[in-house]
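Hi R.,

Here's the chain you asked about this morning:
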Amino acid sequence: MHFRVFYLCVYVRMNNDMPNDLIWSGETSTFIQDLSDSFGTPGSYGWALIYPELSNLSGDYFVFVGQGEGYEVEGLLYSWNLNHLDNIYVVENGIFRQGLGSYLNGDPMTASYIRNYGNEESCYYNDLLSHNIYRNGELINTTTLEEYTDILLEEGEHCYQVSNVYESGESELTAQECIDYQNTPPLEFNLLDPVDNSEVTTLTPLLSWEAAIDTDPFDILKYTLYFDTPEPGIMDIFVDTATSYEIPILLDNTAYYWKVVATDLFGETIENIGGYHSFIINTANDSPANFELVTPTDGSVEITLTPFFYWEPATDLDPNDMVSYNLYIDLDNLFTDTAPISLDTNAFDYSTLNIFLNDNSSYLWTVNASDNHAAITNTDTLQFWTDQYPEPPEPFGRISPSNDTELDLGNVIFTWESTIDVDPLDFVQYTLMYTYNGGDTTIIPELLDTTYAVELDIDRQYYWHVIASDKDALLTFADGSEGMWSFLLGSLNINELLSLTEYALYNAYPNPFNPVTVIKYAVPEASHLSISIYDMIGREIAELYNGSQVPGFHTVIWDASEISSGIYFAKMIAGEYISTQKLMLIK
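And the predicted structure, written out as tokens:
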């Protein structure tokens, strides 16, 4: 509630009677009928005139209030025209009250009718010392000022009265003026800065918000800032009546949440529109973090020509930063022959390109990650090979001893061509086999060289072969044939070797075997014969030989690489001669 203490600088006349507490300080008193156009604008003194037609109202003085130089009545300079009812005021028992128009209409007294007409120097008040302010009959303040503001802390009806305190005592109280005060909460308000979901480039941001509005007169609003931080959690900061607060040093690349609550003197609260807002600290751009390639692994062999590529997702510390990738695949580490494959994810299926990588080839691959600001992080470069289908060693041939040759010395050096395996990371090793008429077969496995020297007994006919194999156990027979080459060693002539009298099927060697065994047989005369392999139920599994054969000792090789383990039978038929032997394949 707000009051103004005013001074009545008026000269009041009613039947030549003047109230004792109002003393005119001007030089002249004038009745209304003495006014004339020649009198002009009022001078520097306040003045007032009785309006005699209304003087019959007992106890009341109706006064026309003019003004001195520099004073205004509601912002207007009034002339001597008395037709304006708002220039006529009511004085009830010496208290200046309200405009005549409102008085006659029965309108209640309001603060808007109170005006300060003059100042203390314009009037003389008999020994005036101060003013007493009463609320609900209780003295709440004594002041020498011309106004007083009462801050209400309780809702309900409050009635006020004022008295003047003189040296001779206290005047009567004014009539009560009452208000029924009901508190209203503050109105919603907006957060200003940082803007919601924005990025802030300083570690000490200044948070600001609108001043909330409270429609209650003279109410005071105070604010509490709620700040949600990573550690230790929600923090509330009382900032009193301020509408901004500078946060101490925060963490970079971190999101924060904040809101403000306004509270009035009655404890009514309202938070900002939209509740919690957020902002992100990002003082400078960071490159994506280091990341690793996952598959194909370094040194791996891919059995498809459209491999699947996968790498760790790269993270970027900068909030709201997006990471994209460039995948490079090439036959050399310069990556100049192919364009990068641009991706938004950390995986790529090569089959989506509808093209194929080269088989049996070495490739290198790498990935770089870039963010919204073109900052780049590169991975290491890995190597892999493509091998869609396992392939046997390349064809090769035997060199010496050549087929059907004769040697004098027992020191024999077996020699054959070198071969390769095109499968990546594959290797080739050789198996040398040799035998003689009526003797066992000698097998020398896992040879890496292409020569082998051995001292053999003379005066015998020998047979030999070389097989190349890879790590997948795929075989390649020298000269593309399973037939053995023969040579004579010593002075034994060919006719002596041909003096065979009967057919014979000798024991295979090795037996059991995996996956190759050598079968020897003897032919006493030129004839047609066949040698076949059968399983346990009599099905023919393989035909090793079927054709004409000259007299002598012969060998045939069975490669059972594609056959499962089990018991099998080798059967030789030559005219009326039939012989069978059991073979055991163990894998």
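The chain has six domains: 2-122, 128-181, 191-281, 293-386, 390-497, 499-587.

Let me know if you need anything else.
M.
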